[in-house]
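Why run this: before we spend reagent on co-expression, it is cheaper to look at a predicted model of the complex and decide which construct boundaries make sense. The entries below are exactly what would go into the expression plan.
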Amino acid sequence: MKKNEFVNQLAEYCEFETPELTLDTPLKSIAGFDSLAIMSIIAFIDENFNMKLTALQLQKITDFNSIILLIGEDKFEND
Amino acid sequence: MINLTGKRILITGASSGIGKAISQLSASLGASLILLGRNIERLEETFYSLQGDGHEYYSVDVTDYLKTDEIIRSTVRSNGVLSGFVHSAGIEKTLPFKASTPKLFKEVFETNVFAGFEIARIISQKGIINTNGASYIFISSVKGKLGDIGNVIYCSSKSALLSGTKAMALELAPKKIRCNCVLPGIVRTEMVERLFNSIPTESMNNVISKHPLGLGKPEDVAALVCFLLSDQAKWITGSEYIIDGGYSAR
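The model came back. Tokens follow.
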């Protein structure tokens, strides 16, 4: 998966309504970013990367880039 | 004083948490136990902590119905009929409803519901259960009565356990088998400690604050279960007992 595809697919999965999300968009600025969204991010990463992250690990995320760093950049194709 | 002397009781999920506490208390009240659990090391730890004698333990996945059936028949042939059954084995999954696929539902229901009812079905047969009377306790959850975000699968499995127990109570009453459900709130078990270690402190404190008497201990639930296993509860069947430190009183 490419990083930009990741942003779009994750945003669709979490049903974020903020348009034009980028890798650097602060998550706290996104409408609908709440505890259920954190749960959804965990489920999305488990489904797509077979990784079980915890809410505690996700406490540190600030934008999509920081989620990618948690997953590991090597899991992504070059854009 | 509750007395379980002379009762042979089968307990699933005996290797940890509530199941372990029920095992320890019921043994100290005179019962002889057949412990079932997946993790052999932790199961042995429970076994060696028990007072009294005549206890047995078997490392088994309770969803392996053929193996469980063999174990039950073999122990009854060797050591006599059963007077009690506690289904404490259970798994929890927290995930959004959108990720709650039939595969995951099946996985949780297999352990939380199907295994408990299948063991109850096996032991209710002639020659396995004590014809003078028996007591089955299913460990549900207060979440079997209340909703919770991210817990559609878990809540529905615990609710299924609750309604199935009531129907079973009606059907097995002529055999003098009593069936009841215990619905704990959040109890400080290894499973809950793991959960608390995976969420921010703020979320953990929020959970704790919803329990007016604080979180429970496994022994709190064990005391209620042992009462229901005893002959002092002989007129109680098809009932549900919430034990949650006031969580559901709001």
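The longest helix of chain A spans residues 35-49. The interface with chain B takes residues 13, 35-36, 39-40, 42-44, 46-47, 54-56, 59 of chain A (CB under 8 Å). Bring this page to Monday's planning discussion.
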